[in-house]
Amino acid sequence: MSHANVQKIKKQVEQECKANKKLSVWFYSDHLLMVEKNSKWLLKELPKSDSEVVLLGVWLHDLQRVRGLKGDHQSVGAREAVKVMKEYGYGKPVIEKVKAIILTHSCSKEIPTSIEGKILATADAMSHYYNDFFLRIAVTGQRNLKEFKEWVLEKLDRNYNKKIFFASAKKKIKPRHDLYKKVFSMR
Question: Does the predicted model carry a pTM greater than 0.90?
């Protein structure tokens, strides 16, 4: 398979994001494109990794949200990703690798073991530090201020300490991490 299919899948995901009226308008432009940007930066840092697997993971890891499906974010997303990859003619070896990195990208139940899984988890975590990610979630009003601050501080800690696997990525994100921790720790 070629990276041409990755571009077709990217376009399909973009169209699905636009079609889902319940999905925040910024999700594609500010989250998925930032995960892609971070992944490409990490792929340059780690040239022995499988770029096609990583980029498929980028575009398929949040299908549960993109499609507005109920259920476990990672499990449902992986199931949907398998369907998409089969539609594009991917074989079992690539499908299994991509499925594995989607199942571990949140580092909640399992930690990724492959370099590709670590790249996706890291790129996803790094994306939360850009584009007013936390402020956009704040305006949804799903939590009161105290609960929101607690949630952000927990997510920052999990992102930085459990999801960012590479020293270069930690170094790159540290100033933003420290600033967010300071802001959301204010009383």
Answer: yes
- Cα separation of 90 and 80, whole Å? 14
Question: Average pLDDT by consecutive 10-residue portion of the chain (187 residues)?
Answer: 86 96 88 97 96 98 94 94 97 98 94 98 95 77 82 93 97 95 88
> Considering only CA atoms, which of 37, 24, 6 is closest in space to residue 126?
37
Q: Which residues contact 114 (CB under 8 A, 6 or more apart)?
A: 97, 100, 101
- Residue 54 and residue 77: Cα distance in Å, rounded? 15
Q: What pLDDT does 2 receive?
A: 63
Give the per-residue pLDDT at 87: 97
Give me the domains of the chain, ranges plus CATH numbers: 3-185 (1.10.3210.10)
Residue type, 166: F
- Report the alpha-carbon distance of residue 60 to residue 31 in Å, rounded: 13
Tell me how far apart the alpha carbons of residues 170 and 42 are, in angstroms, rounded to a whole number.
Answer: 12
Contacts of 129 (CB under 8 A, 6+ apart): 159, 173, 176, 177, 180
